[in-house]
Each structure stands twice: as structure tokens, then as C-alpha cells.
Specification:
This protein is α+β, with helices and mostly antiparallel strands. The chain has a domain at 77-279 and 288-334: Beta-lactamase, CATH 3.40.710. It has 13 helices and 14 strands. It has helices spanning 26-38, 82-96, 123-127, 148-157, 175-187, 191-203, 235-242, 247-253, 266-270, 282-289, 306-313, 346-351, 400-412, and strands spanning 5-10, 16-21, 43-50, 53-64, 69-70, 77-78, 279-280, 297-298, 301-302, 317-319, 329-331, 365-369, 373-378, 383-389. The longest helix is centred in the N-terminal third of the chain and has 15 residues, at 82-96. It is globular.
């Protein structure tokens, strides 16, 4: 930290980026600035730690486009599915403590879930998106996502969309309640309370699943990416437009008031939606993954033991056609692994190679969030990384902004190529 240099740069139209950069990571800072100059960035934060030491911590741009409020050091925003990494980590913390058996039937902890063909579902299946409840068929009531008991009861009663464990389909919204209810039942605490008390607070992170009202003024509103009709060419987008009963459509549309702007409401921030409404910044994401990049512990805070850490990073399910996202996906236990869809995704042809991919080092694991945010750990090089923003980009995984930052980080650490679909030294 003492070797890091302060950076403060004003880009066009008064946009200011500031923070610290350690020698050797200047290329990463350059790409962060380039996101504002040429890739449409509005407001964002970026943090990189190596060996548990913060080597880069940048923030800047506009937090609120309507008021012109600047993105400050303590600005936070919704990170959408990056929240899944936090929720999964809660389950792994309990597993590491011997309180949750990842491979035991869920019925041992949540008996109500074991019905209608879900009797043999395990927590592993919940974590790797193979538990076969990626959506709910019948309409979710408007305030359903803000009612924990309602959502868990609905999921317990839902008939699986396929034989559990035989394939995977991204549980884009339901993951928060399937895995989250296991955390709640085993720990006796709500998901948000467990995460705050056992992970965020010990690590000193500005990261919440269920935001306290006093933090609300620091939140940067999300600006959605608006797709044109001409852009609706991917299998996922086609399903949304033409197949209302498909898994993609049910996942995307059948989620009550959350679908219609919930990410920018106090109601949406206050709820505990463990798949989608975590609120933090890059420092919070990188800080959460830093212990996982360094043997499971950092600064006298141990999250998981080494056996658990090794298990949570291994690929558990992979497919050439994810039942929800309709692209090839690879999942560890609650985390994404490197996914190279540059030659396999229509989105890559529409919006550039980075869309629908997230190319990391082979040992790395983490999670993207809708619009392009990302948190990850790479134990091979002691790297943790966080990137958050408020102006969403196209595609289902990363887009050109986030992947450019990941690429620059790996290059700065001496990696040479991602031609194999993973970054290699």
C-alpha cells in the first residue's frame, strides 16, 4: 500500500476518476479510464488485491445521472448476481464449520422441499444450478420477492423442470431462496444477517444483502441497458419474445415488482434477495474474495478451511446449452468458472467478443452480475478482483468493459494469453 501512487484524472465533461495504483498495475488503471473515454461507462469502481494487499483501488464518474452526483469512494450499487457469490459463501462457511453437508439431501434440513420429484435434491445441486427449480410457473404476487416465507414455500411446492441433478439451468432469481433457506435453517439467522455478522463485518466490508436505510443516500441508481427489437436475436432473447412459458421467460418476467424497477427502490434494497440485490462496491467484492484467494483466511479472519476451499472452486456442472441462459456455462458450487463463448454465442457477434463470456484463470472462481459487474478469486496468483458499475451493458455475462479490466489485470500479473479460454502464464 505504501508503494501505491495516488491517481486523480479528469476526463471529458468533468468526469473525475481517482484512487490508488501500485507500480505494475498502470495498464489496469488505463483500461478503467478507457471505459469512461470510449466504452460508455457512467460511474464505476475497481479494486484489485494480490496476496491480500490492495494494489489498486479506483472509483469515479457519475453516480446519479439525473442529479449529476459524483461517484465517491464510498458509493455503492446493486451488483445483481454477484450476490450469488456472497450467498454461496455463506453456505460454504457453514460447511467448513461442519454444520452443513453439501452432499446430503436437502430434506434433512428443509423437509418441505422434498416433494414432487425433489426428494433427492442436495445442497450441491442447489449451488451448481442443477436442482431443477430455475423459475416458478405460476405468477409471483407483486410483493413476492420481498416476502421470504412466500418465496421459499412456493419453491418447496414447485415441480422440477427436469430430473434434478441431470442437467443445469441458471437459477437466476430462485438461487437466493434455495441456497439462502439452507443458510437460514442451519444457522438460525436470516441470510442477510448471517452474511453481515459472519463475513462482511469481520472483513470490514461495505456489503449488504438487505440494505440498512441509513446507507441509502450512498447508493448509485442502476441505468438499464435497453435492447432494441433488432437485437433480440439470441436464443435467450428469442425465448423472452416468443415463448412466454419457457424457462428464460419465467425467470426473467415472473418475479413480481422486482422486474419493474425494483433494483432502484427502497423496497428492493431492503429485502433479502440472495440472488440479485446485494449492494456493495468493488472494494467490497474484492474484499470478500481476498481470503478465498489466500487459503481461506486473511488478517486473522478465517472463512473456510482448505478442504472446503478446494471443493468450492471445482467445476461441478457444465453444459453446452444452459436451460435458462441458452449459452454454454460452467459452474462450481455457487460460483462461475471461466466461460469462453467468443465463438459460440450470437451475442459475441452482436456486441463484441466479451459478451456472454467471462474469461479467467483456470483455478479462478467468482460471479458476474447483470450488466457486467464481477467479483473473483484466483488462488493460483493470490488475486482478488472487484468491478462494479451503474450503467448496464449488453449480454448475459461480461461485456467489453469488465473483460478489458480482467484481461489487463492478468497481463499485469505476467499472464500471456487467453487463447485456450482461460488465462495462461
Amino acid at each position: 500500500m505504501s508503494m501505491s501512487k495516488s491517481l486523480k484524472e479528469t476526463i471529458a465533461h468533468g468526469v473525475v476518476v481517482e484512487g490508488i495504483v501500485a507500480p505494475g498495475l498502470e495498464l489496469v488503471a488505463d483500461q478503467f479510464l478507457e471505459n469512461f473515454r470510449s466504452r460508455g461507462e457512467l460511474g464505476a469502481s475497481l479494486c484489485v488485491t494480490v496476496g491480500g494487499e490492495t494494489r489498486l483501488d479506483l472509483w469515479g464518474g457519475i453516480a446519479d445521472g439525473k442529479t449529476g452526483r459524483a461517484w465517491q469512494r464510498d458509493t455503492v450499487s446493486i451488483v445483481f448476481s454477484c450476490t450469488k457469490g456472497a450467498t454461496a459463501l455463506c453456505a460454504h462457511v457453514l460447511a467448513s464449520r461442519g454444520r452443513l453437508d453439501i452432499d446430503a439431501p436437502v430434506a434433512e434440513v428443509w423437509p418441505e422441499f422434498a416433494q414432487r420429484g425433489k426428494e433427492h435434491v442436495t445442497t450441491r445441486m442447489m449451488l451448481d444450478h442443477s436442482s431443477a427449480v430455475p423459475a416458478l410457473r405460476e405468477a409471483v404476487k407483486p410483493d413476492g420477492p420481498y416476502d421470504w416465507q412466500y418465496m421459499t414455500q412456493r419453491l418447496a411446492a414447485e415441480e422440477p423442470f427436469w430430473e434434478p441433478g441431470t442437467r443445469n439451468g441458471y437459477h437466476g432469481f430462485t438461487f437466493g431462496w434455495t441456497v439462502g433457506e439452507m443458510v437460514r435453517r442451519v444457522s438460525g439467522k436470516s441470510l442477510g444477517a448471517f452474511f453481515q455478522e459472519e463475513i462482511a463485518r469481520p472483513l470490514g466490508l461495505d456489503f449488504w444483502i438487505g440494505l440498512p436505510e441509513e446507507i441509502e443516500p450512498r447508493v448509485a441508481p442502476i441505468v438499464p441497458y435497453v435492447y432494441s427489437a433488432k437485437e433480440a436475436q439470441t436464443p435467450f432473447m428469442t425465448a423472452l419474445a416468443k415463448e412466454p412459458k419457457s424457462i428464460p421467460s419465467l425467470f426473467y418476467f415472473n418475479n413480481g415488482r422486482w422486474r419493474t424497477g425494483g433494483a432502484n427502490t427502497r423496497e428492493g434494497h431492503a429485502a433479502e434477495i440472495g440472488a440479485a440485490n446485494g449492494i456493495t462496491n468493488a472494494r467490497g467484492l474484492a474484499g470478500m474474495y481476498a481470503p478465498l484467494a489466500n487459503g481461506g483466511a486473511l488478517n486473522d479472519v478465517r472463512l473456510v478451511d482448505r478442504v472446503t476451499l478446494s471443493r468450492m472452486a471445482e467445476v461441478s456442472m457444465a453444459t453446452h446449452d444452459d436451460a435458462t441462459l441458452r449459452i454454454p456455462t460452467r459452474f462450481a458450487l455457487g460460483f462461475m468458472k471461466s466461460m469462453d463463448n467468443r465463438r459460440r454465442s450470437i451475442a459475441a457477434r452482436l456486441w463484441g467478443d466479451a459478451c456472454d463470456s467471462v474469461i479467467l484463470g483456470s483455478p479462478a472462481f467468482g460471479h458476474v452480475g447483470a450488466g457486467g459487474s464481477l467479483g473473483l478469486a484466483d488462488p493460483a496468483c493470490g488475486l482478488s478482483f472487484g468491478y462494479t458499475m451503474n450503467k448496464m451493458g449488453p449480454g448475459l455475462l461480461l461485456n467489453d468493459r469488465g473483460q478489458a479490466l480482467v484481461d489487463a489485470t492478468y497481463r499485469a500479473l505476467g499472464y500471456r494469453s487467453k487463447d485456450a479460454g482461460v488465462w495462461e502464464t
